[in-house]
């Protein structure tokens, strides 16, 4: 009888422990908000969806994703993230440069390689992304999770161009809040016009602007090829994006949840590195199939030479803005040399 009572007591204690543990799990479950500057089927959306899936499959937490336009403009989402209203933010590096000037690094013309293997190596292994930028993000109340490429930039215009002289006086739409893009197109001979994405289509329809730049997946998805006549690959850069968290929120998490978020970011990063190249190819493939009369131009190395020469002034201007800018640009150049040497090994 004594043995039986002891066994019953043990079972009761174990049941109590299990109940407490289950209650603790329920209490610790949270709902987190993730806003981004693109739609669910766009690169940032693919990253966010993979991030959400990993979190929800490996914890009791839930993530609500807010696509572009759900919570205002890009600047609104940044303010909400820094205020702790949003836990996570996906945003292009061009927009991020308005808050974190060092992020304009990724918008500099003719710095990033066009070789996808080198890009993948750089985004996974660079000191800039893994060591330098996290400290800078922290100073702005953010925790950097990832920086990733979305696709090679292409320029769409009404008329073909093959030199800076051809762009003289042409009004080129650029993302607002990015002084580097303004400097870039001035250096290329054009007249840059900062403009929100929401105003771009109307501006192209009414000839308020003569062209714009975006990855081909965006150009095809939003019909920008139907509003212009020529798509030109200049080789001047990639469209890149970042994922970050509110630092106060992240710092307040337990070690398990911090590890979970890091793992989710690493998983989503791997997913988007594979998908971005596919999306780029899909975009240009769709344009070729659905818009056969559309002109597609790839500038030769000789044609790119004057653009590259003009780009040097933009790189110098970025470095001259602050010691931090110069330091991070120097580190990026070193990282890119390492990527070139190791990407194909």
Your description of this structure?
This protein has 345 residues and is α/β, with parallel strands linked by helices. It is 53% helix and 18% strand. It has one domain (29-343): D-Maltodextrin-Binding Protein, domain 2. The chain has helices at 2-28, 43-57, 74-82, 93-96, 116-125, 127-139, 179-187, 197-205, 216-221, 247-251, 255-290, 301-321, 323-342; strands at residues 31-36, 62-66, 88-92, 142-157, 171-174, 191-194, 211-215, 230-233, 238-246, 295-298. Strands 1, 2, 3, 4, 5, 6, 7, 8, 9 and 10 form a ten-stranded mixed sheet that branches. Helix 2 packs antiparallel against helix 11 (255-290), helix 6 (127-139) packs antiparallel against helix 13 (323-342) and helix 7 (179-187) packs across helix 12.
Offer a few descriptive terms:
alpha/beta; 10 strands; D-Maltodextrin-Binding Protein, domain 2; globular; about 55% helix; 10-stranded mixed β-sheet; about 350 residues
């Amino acid at each position: 009888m004594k043995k039986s009572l002891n066994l019953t007591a043990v079972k009761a204690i174990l049941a109590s422990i299990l109940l407490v543990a289950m209650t603790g799990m329920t209490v610790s479950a949270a709902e987190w908000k993730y806003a981004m500057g693109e739609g669910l089927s766009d690169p940032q959306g693919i990253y966010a969806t993979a991030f959400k899936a990993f979190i929800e499959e490996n914890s009791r937490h839930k993530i609500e994703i807010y696509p572009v336009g759900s919570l205002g403009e890009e600047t609104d989402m940044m303010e909400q993230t820094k205020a702790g209203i949003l836990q996570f933010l996906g945003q292009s590096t061009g927009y991020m440069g308005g808050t974190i000037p060092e992020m304009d690094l990724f918008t500099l013309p003719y710095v990033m390689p066009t070789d996808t293997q080198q890009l993948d190596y750089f985004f996974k292994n660079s000191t800039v992304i893994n060591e330098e930028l996290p400290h800078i993000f922290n100073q702005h109340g953010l925790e950097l999770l990832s920086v990733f490429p979305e696709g090679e930039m292409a320029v769409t215009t009404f008329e073909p161009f093959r030199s800076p002289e051809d762009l003289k006086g042409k009004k080129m739409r650029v993302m607002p809040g990015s002084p580097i893009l303004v400097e870039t197109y001035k250096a290329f001979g054009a007249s840059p016009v900062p403009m929100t994405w929401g105003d771009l289509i109307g501006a192209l329809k009414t000839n308020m602007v003569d062209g714009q730049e975006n990855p081909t997946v965006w150009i095809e998805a939003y019909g920008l090829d139907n509003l212009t006549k020529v798509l030109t690959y200049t080789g001047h850069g990639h469209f890149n994006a970042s994922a970050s968290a509110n630092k106060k929120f992240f710092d307040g998490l337990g070690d398990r949840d911090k590890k979970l978020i890091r793992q989710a970011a690493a998983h989503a990063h791997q997913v988007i590195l594979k998908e971005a190249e596919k999306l780029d190819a899909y975009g240009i493939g769709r344009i070729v199939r659905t818009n056969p009369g559309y002109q597609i131009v790839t500038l030769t190395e000789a044609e790119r030479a004057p653009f590259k020469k003009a780009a040097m002034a933009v790189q110098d201007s970025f470095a001259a803005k602050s010691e931090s800018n110069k330091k991070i640009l120097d580190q990026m150049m070193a990282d890119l040399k390492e990527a070139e040497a190791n990407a194909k090994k």
